[in-house]
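Kindly go through one protein, given below as sequence and tokens. The question is how this chain folds according to its tokens.

***
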Amino acid sequence: MLLVIYFIKFVYSYKHQYESNPLCTFSVMFCLLVVLLVTFILPIDIFLVSFAKNHDGTFKDWATNETLSKVDKFMYDTYYSLYGLSITLMFIVIPFLHFFNDETDSSSSGRLHTAIKITFGATLFMIALIFAGSYTYSQNLGPNDIFKNILPYQKEDKIQNGIVFVLTLITTMGFVNVCFYTASGIFSWPIGLLLGTKEIKSRYNIVNDRADLLRLQVSNLRQKSRAEGLSDREQEKLTSAEAELAQLDHEATVLSEQSSSWSHKLRIIIRPVQILFGAIFVILSIILLITLITVDVDRILHSNGPKEGYVLLKPVLPNALEYVFTKTQDLILIGPIPLLIIVCFLAVATISGIRNLGLWFLLTRLYRVKPGRTPPRALLFFCITVMLTALAFNLLLYSMASQYITFGNQNYVAKSANGTMSVQPCTVADYNKDCLLTRSSVILMRMMSNLWLFGAMFYWSSWIFVAIGTVSFIAYLYRGRRQAAHDLILDDDDFED
């Protein structure tokens, strides 16, 4: 619920005051709703497979084959429906709205014609990708058979192969966004909360003093202009002073409004809460980075290399995050809450990273995301970016806690060679048919099984996530406290919350 409120507040705070339109706002809200569903389906998936079994490895009374089959089909249908809806939004709906809201073309008929052409081209491109995946990619790039004893047998279906290929490409693009935006945001947001902003009153006094000096300078130059004219250098100086004065007047107005707001008046109560949450999420971000480093080192030391996608069937190094997930799964009123917290944190961190870095495409920044000044096309492009990132969250979490993401906290009854029975945790290395696979893990395994290159790229990309996250941690600490109301005033390229 808090994440829903955060998304709604974000859209209404950042949409352009004058250029926004109801259709664009509704589309952005709907896209973010899809992002929420894609984000929250993984904890539900893990809860269902864990809830089906007792701690002694036996199935609960309700978990009959028929019931489990229905649950399995429902979850698969839900996953593929959400993925299909996301693909439709990214390839058809959002491109149409993006080009229909082109501010450079004043003719509505011209915008409509352009939008239809672009949408038609995007649709053909999507169909071409499905066709390519159906007939070429697995044979040419080589399969990865490491999961052959785990995945349920399925007769080869070319259409399904094509869909999995498109999902693989989209997930890869999403993981690029994860490495860029999420890795930056996991520290920008909590460090911003922890350090806070500089005092409004002191900044307001500095702005007013500087504005008074500029007004005197502008007044003198204007008097000289009327009396004897100005040289080119003096005219340039006057223009620069007038522009800076206008910016300072705007900043003074914003600071004045901020000082009279309820959030500023209640800062004595709000500030300790911000410090507490900032410290908690900074620690969480560090734990996530350390976990990812540990898992990546484990994978490169104990996996079978790139030809099997650096897949680690049996972890060797300790994984504290996976241990916490597993032990809390069956606790009353706690259960999947740790995973939900991390998923929500990743979503908020992604938006924070986008606010700081802007929206990029092919090493070119297309838009800045600013409160009250984000045009409709930027918000639509923002939706594509967030949707791609959300589709890759499962991949990031699978890397950090693969056993938990695959099985939850399931156990199974193992029979030894001498006939004794023992309860063992479900693992990928010693897979037992009584262990239920999460549907998310099956989809990810199929991606990596059909294309070993995907697993290898994903592995090395996770090191990029670690590198960018580490650099961001140092950079945001070095930046220190920000100016008051910085996101409403600054237009430079400095780091922002």
